[in-house]
């Protein structure tokens, strides 16, 4: 049948089973088409003789129904349905499609616009359009779709599975000869996968070979639609992948986020005000009995804080009004001054790191003191101090203006009025302190001090602060605690560097702790905090990961990236380039394990003469810490959910490494058969933690190959454990989400989902990470994930689930709201 012709085509109408099947012919209407259809019913379609048959008897109807079922193929059935959809007049389209298309701002959409709206690679859209339509000029390339064609495209991609499978097959069939060849399939996926940043190009041919094997194209040169459909329909996972070959009925309507780009500043301001009002309403609704129960310690501490401030305020008012008979402005000034004394003392106490470590270590204290909120509380007190400073200053300024002994300027800028304890210096000191406070506020620094009877309020907290600093200085420069040297550095991908540090002999820490480090050859006096990535069970090395985002971190990254081989050997620092050769990230870890026994002897300075230590030109590094974080609570919980965003997974590296070390420590290897068993009694008795769900949200896997190696080792260790203890449940479940590709369940993700499912079936591993756990494309649906934690087999109760998060603030806010809804305890580690 020639393309673009209007010859009759056959339509199959199915009625009630008691009625005969009727075959009739209709003329194809081309009034709704802007260009001829590329694909009509092929010569392989319903047998020609059937168009001449018209039966009215019931028995004849059954006969021809059975006959058609035996003679019509899957392709013929799909083609009949497809042709019917293409010939469907506009007024017959579903109402929701017609109403949606009425909102199109233009009469047509370019293929580039279609590609962006569907978040799909352009060549897939081009193939899809060429499958359904052909140009009026054979040499002309289709570049736009009009309104009717957009409607028809939406209708087709929301139709039956048979039609969508046929359209996908025709997209793979590049030369339209009704067959897919091995070269066509390979060519399609080569073009598709080369545009995915998350895919390792080195594995391209291996992946294509697996695809060819799945569709039998490793044994034959081509397959037709019948064989393709048979393979897909018999595999539920492939069928599920192909079911995503669809689009949302309103995909061609611009979203509200795009329309906001055209709003003026006033409109954006109004939108912001409305959004803030909605947030206020949500926050107001949070004050329920359940919310108060979950945040009881926070409410009690806040109440005590407010009560102390009110008590001090009442004391000043009563004393100044009844005893000294001061005027109203002096009373306000004294209120601000006394409350400043208290709050300036409190703001220091809130940042005493070693004191916070003691509170976190004690189970009773951390239950009654919300120690994880100390940074947020510190910020609140800082803002209170700024407000009190304004009150105190303005009240004194007004009072000076009322006095007649001297002029206002004399009171403010001289010592002549003799105001204050030390030679009338109080007003001038107040001006200086106001300047200092303004500088602190502008620079976002939150340690505030105030004058007046300052020494009475500051001496206690300041003494603790100085003692902590003295202790830190003594330990950081001690060979046994803080002064050490660098063993190796690995330049990871995406501007990340890992440092492997010789662990000082007396240095102890817990999983999730962090340290401040100083590299004298980078900056002599700068200390910067980083989470420890290695496990406490590793007594030889400490490992940290640094992302080059600031001046100091960039200097560290460049120093070891550009270090020459001679300098590396002279400083006894091994530098691995995993950014160029990813396998060196694994090589670094293996080298560290091999060096354990050798470096353990070198690490004991009692066995090394002082002259030898000085003569070694090692890369010095000074450690300050460790300091605790909320991650210390993990081993006291029953079911923890560890959520990391990007580089925020580093605290969990130490935790998972520690858990794996505990599993390995409980191994028992048979001397006769070398089989691996586990001392489960020791594991159960020494750990309350029963279940871990690890969720990692990141753009792609290439940034953290070092962390994937850890996950692979843990999966292997868990498989060994479950093999020897088949009645036990899984301890660790891994959920990976890569956001580089948006997963909207549309046509652009079908080829990817298809190949990932096939790769999983053949190799038993995920195509991106080589883990057994599946990689999810797109952002997590937190409500579904949290529901799974408390429903189904082996589910936990809400009271047993503790969620720990480290990552971006926006993500933390979302998770905090979901945890409040599900009544999970939520802990956040600040960057």
Overall description:
Keywords: FAD, Flavoprotein, Membrane, NADP, Oxidoreductase, Transmembrane, Transmembrane helix. The protein is of the alpha/beta class. It has 33 helices and 21 strands. Strands 7, 8, 9, 10, 11, 12 and 13 form a seven-stranded mixed sheet that branches. Helix 2 crosses helix 7 (161-172) and helix 9 (204-214) packs across helix 31 (750-763). The chain is globular, with a radius of gyration of 36 Å. The protein starts with 8 loop residues before the first strand and ends with a strand.
Radius of gyration: 36 Å
What share of residues are in beta strands?
5-15%
Q: Shape from CA axes? A: globular
Cα distance, first to last residue? 67 Å
Task: Give the number of helices.
Answer: 33
Q: Based on DSSP secondary structure assignment, what is the total number of beta strands? A: 21
Label the structural class: alpha/beta
- Low-pLDDT stretches are 1-34, 39-58, 255-262, 445-453, 599-615
Mean pLDDT: 75
Helix content: 40-55%
Sheet with the most strands?
A: 7 strands, mixed
